[in-house]
C-alpha cells in the first residue's frame, strides 16, 4: 500500500522553527527550514540529525521549499545548507528570494555581532546558500525531476508567501505555510483550486480563534494609539521589518492624513526604505486595489513616517515608533521597550503572535517584573495591548481552505497542541476526513490509494463508448473486457485481439461439439422448427436465426438436426460452439437434453 | 484535427485549432497595414493635408474628390483609418472555447472576436501581455477618438469603383470587411474575459486538453504554447527570440517531441541584424543632434523602446548628449514605464537580480530621475510649455497615420536637419511616409526585429524535433521582392505544410491511445502472467465510467448471490446470465503432458491417432474425442456435461488467456 509520511522537525504542536519532512512516492522533501525565536541554544534550529547522523543531507533530500521569508520559516536555511550540508535545489518565490537574505543577515548580525556568539553562519554562507535557490512563480508547474513536480499558490500572509502543492504520480500533498484567507490593506487572500491532495498540511496558529471583523480591530488600534499620543505618551509597536509593518504603516498613514495629526511616526532601522522599495517592485504580489492604482499613487511611499534614530527615543513628547523585531526578543524594539517600560503613560502594542520564551510573550502574559540579562529586573508599568494583526487564517479561514482544496486528510502544524486538538475534532466532524497532529520527531503515516493510469487503445474505448450508449446506466453497468499489457514501464489496455497481434501470439481455438438425442416424432425440418420455437421462448434478448440451409443459429452457435439411422423418431441435435460462447453452449446442451416441451407446434 | 487559418499576415496570426472536441484560437492579430491607405489624422489643423487635391479618374467619369485625396502621385482615403480583421466567416466564432495569446502585439483584434455576439470563451494570457496589451489598445483608441472625423468614406469600397482606382489601393483585398477601431468600452469588455496564466502553468481545458504557456524570449510575458493531451502534442511557436534582450530567455526544451509545430511570427526583416541596427540608430541620432536637428522615432509605447532607452542610457554621456532632452509622448507613456519595472518574474536573469538589490530593473528609471527623459500623455498641455529643441522624441504611431507622430512629421518634415528613424518593423517606411511627400527630413531605416530568422529556425527545429511543421506560405518561398534569395525562406528536411488566409488544414495525427485510470481496487484484483520475458498480461473485466472527458475503470459489480440450488432447478429455463466474455486463448496443448493429466483424472483408455496437423485422442470408455492441433483444440463429447467440463479445464490449463 503506498503511503505518505510526514515528520515535523519543527512546528509539530508548536510555533517556531517550521521544518517538515515529507516522503511521497519515494521522494523526500523538506518544507521550510526555520529558527525558533524562543530559544538561544541548540533548540533554536530543527534537529537535522533526524535525517542522518553523519554528514550531508544532499542525498537524503530531493528538494527544499521555503514558503515565505519569516525567520521561523527560513532562519535555519544557511545553517542547514552550508554547515550541515545540502547542495540540492531550494525553491522559493521571487519576493522571498529577494527579502530572505536580508532578514538572515539581520538575524546573523544580532546573534554574532551583538550577542557575540560564535559557531554561527557567516555572511558568505548566506550568499552561498542563496545561490542554491531556484525562484518559483505562482501557478507555474516546476518539474524538480522526472517524477516530482511542485506548484505554488498565493498565500497572502506576507509579500511573496506561497502555499505549495507537491505531486508525485497520482499522489499529492499541499503545504500551506502561513496563510490568510481575508484580503487586507496591502495583500490579497489565499487561494487554491480544488486539487484534492492526499494530505493538506495546514498551519493552525489561530486554531481556536474566530476573529471579529478587521474593521473593529483597526478602529481599536487607532483609538488606542490616538489616546496615548493625545496624553503625551509614547507608543511602541514591535514589528518585523516586512509584513505587518507595511500594513500598519498604511493604516496609520491614512489615519494621520485624515485626522491631520502632528505627532511623529518613526520606523526603526534603515530597512524601511529598502523594504518599501521591495513592495514597489513586487507590486504584482499585493492586492488588487494597490496593483490597479500604483501608476497614479504608490501606497508604499509614506509621507508621515520617517526613519528612526536611536537618539529619538529620549526625545520628550509623544511619538509612535515601529521597531524590529516583533517579539521583543532582541534588537532595537527591546532597547526602546527597556527605556519606556517604566512610564505608565506609554504603551506597547503587540500586533502579532509571540513565541513562548520571548520578552513579548512574558509581557503579554501579564508579568510585571522581567528578569533581564545580567540579573537586572525590569519593571513593566507601561500599558500593554495585544491586537492580532498577524495575517494568519483563523479557525473559519482554515475550514474555508479545507473546503477549497478538498483534501483526503489534514495534518496540522504551526500551532499549540491544545488548540490543535480542538480544531482536529472539528475538522474530523465536519469533513469526515482523518486529521493528524504529529509532535516534533513524530511521523504521521497516511495510506494513499492512488489509481493506476493506463493507456487504453482508442479503438477499444470508442467501441466501448458506442456500446455503452451516451449515458452510463447505473442499473445495467456494462462490463468491458480488455487485456492489459505490461512491458517495461508502460501499461496499455487493448482489446484481446489486438493484444494477440501485438505480442505475436497465435490464437488457439477451443471448440466443443455435442450431440444431443431427442425423442421427437416429426420430420427433421419440423423438429428443427420446434427447437427454434423452444429456444425463442426461453432465450430472451438473444439473436436466434433460422437459416435456410437447415440450421439454427443462437448468436454464433450452430445447431443442426438429423435423424438417427436406427430410429427415425430419435433425433440428434448437433451443437457446436467455441470457448468464447462456453456459457451459452453449455446452457443450450443442458436445455436440449431435457427434451422439447409437448406444447410446441 | 483541423487548423483554420483566419489571418494571412505571418506575424499577426489568427488560427483556430480543433483538437479533441475543443476549439482553440491561437492569437488574435490585427493587420493594421490597411491604415496606410488612409490619410494621416493630424492633431492640429494641417493646411497642407486639407489642401490636397481630390481624386478624379483620368477620363473624369469617377469623381470621388471628397473621399479620395492625391498626394505625390498616390491616392489616400480621407476617412478614419480602418483595419483588416481576421476572417470571420470561415467558422462560427461562437464555438470558440478559448483564445491563447502569445504576445501583446498579437491580441489587438481581440475585441472584434470576443465582442462578437455569442462568444462565450475564455482568453488566456500572461499578466504582462494583458497589462501591456491593454496599454496598446488604450493608446490606439485614444489616438482615434481624440481627432473625431465627421466623414466616413465608403463609396470607394464599391467593387466596380475600386477596380478603377490606381494602385496600391486597387490591389487592397477584402476592403468591405475592414472595420474601424473599437471603443474603450469594448476593450474593457474584451479584456475582462482574460484569465491570467504563468509560464509552465498547466491549464486543463474540459479535462480533454492541457495548454501551457512557455517563455518565448521576444517581449515581456511573451509565450509560445503547448497544446497537448496525454498522447498528442501541438507546439504553437509565435514571435520567439533567441537574442538576449530584456525578457526571460526562450524555453526551447519544453517544445521537444511535438507531433505538429505551428510556426509563425518570424522576423519581418531577415536581412537586418538587430545589434547593427542599434548601432546605426545611436550614431544617426547623435549626428543629427550635433548638427542641431531633431530626431523623431515613431514607435509603440512598449517593447523595443525599453531596449532603445537602455542603449541610450549607456550612450548619452559618451556621445555628449547629456543636455539633450528626450521626450516620450504617449497617452500610456507613464504607465508603460511604470509597468516595465514591476514584472521582475518575466525578465532576464540580470534584470531579475537587480530587483533583489532592490533596484528598478530598467535604467530608464534613472533617466527619468535625472530629468534626461521626460514623458507626457500628448503634445498638448505640459509638453508644449517645456518643449525644447533640438530634441529626441519617441512617440506613436509607427504607421504615421495617427498619434502624435503625425504632428512631428508635419512640424519637422521641411528641414533636412531633422531625422526620422524607423525602428519598428511592422510598416514599410516608404508607405508610411507617402502622404508626407515631398519631405526634406532625413529618413533612416533601422528596423529592429529580434524574432527568429531563417538561419535560427532550422537549428531550433533540429533541436526540438517536431514530426510536422505548419507555417504561413510566405515562409516557404523567398520574399516577392527578392526572388533569388533562397536563404530568406525556410528550407527544412521535411517540407512544412503552408497555409494562407482562409486555409483549412487537416493536421496529420493518428490518435491511438487515451488515458484511463484503473481504480486501486481493480488494479489490486488483476492477476498478471508473464507471456514473454519482460512482458506480462492481465485480463481486465471492468466497468467504464466516463465523465468530463476523464475515463475511469472500476471493478465490475459482483453478481447477485446465486439462488439456492433447489430453486435453480425449477427455474432452469431462464436465460443464462450474461457474464464477462471469455478471454481469447493462445498457445498449444502438448500431447504427452495432456495424456499424463488425463491419466491423473482416471482416464486411462486413450487411443492416440496421428493426423497431418496433430493428434486425435479417443477416450474410448467415455466415447469422446479430443482433436489436438497447433492452433486449435476440438472436444467432441456427447452426453456427459461434467466430463466435458473436466476436459475443458484440463485443456485450459495449458493455454494462456488474454
UniProtKB/TrEMBL annotation, chain A:
InterPro entries: Beta_Casp, INTS11-like_MBL-fold, IntS11_C, MBL, Metallo-B-lactamas, RibonucZ/Hydroxyglut_hydro, RMMBL
Record GO biological process: regulation of RNA splicing; snRNA processing
Assigned protein family: Belongs to the metallo-beta-lactamase superfamily. RNA-metabolizing metallo-beta-lactamase-like family. INTS11 subfamily.
Keywords of the record: Cytoplasm, Hydrolase, Metal-binding, Nucleus, Zinc
Highest taxon of source: Eukaryota
The protein's name in its UniProt record: Integrator complex subunit 11
Entry keyword Signal: no
Automatic annotation (TrEMBL), chain B:
Subcellular location: Cytoplasm; Nucleus
Keyword hit for Cytoplasm: yes
Pfam families for this protein: Beta-Casp (PF10996), IntS9_C (PF21382), Lactamase_B_6 (PF16661)
Keywords: Cytoplasm, Nucleus
Gene3D superfamilies cross-referenced by the UniProt entry: 3.40.50.10890, Ribonuclease Z/Hydroxyacylglutathione hydrolase-like
Span of domain Beta-Casp: 305-433
Keyword Cytoplasm: yes
Ranges for region Disordered: 548-570
Broad class of the protein's primary localization: cytoplasm
GO cellular component annotations of the record: cytosol; INTAC complex; integrator complex
Highest taxon, organism lineage: Eukaryota
An example Gene Ontology biological process: negative regulation of transmembrane receptor protein serine/threonine kinase signaling pathway
PANTHER family hit by this protein: INTEGRATOR COMPLEX SUBUNIT 9
Family listed: Belongs to the metallo-beta-lactamase superfamily. RNA-metabolizing metallo-beta-lactamase-like family. INTS9 subfamily.
Name of the protein in question: Integrator complex subunit 9
Lineage: Eukaryota, Metazoa, Chordata, Craniata, Vertebrata
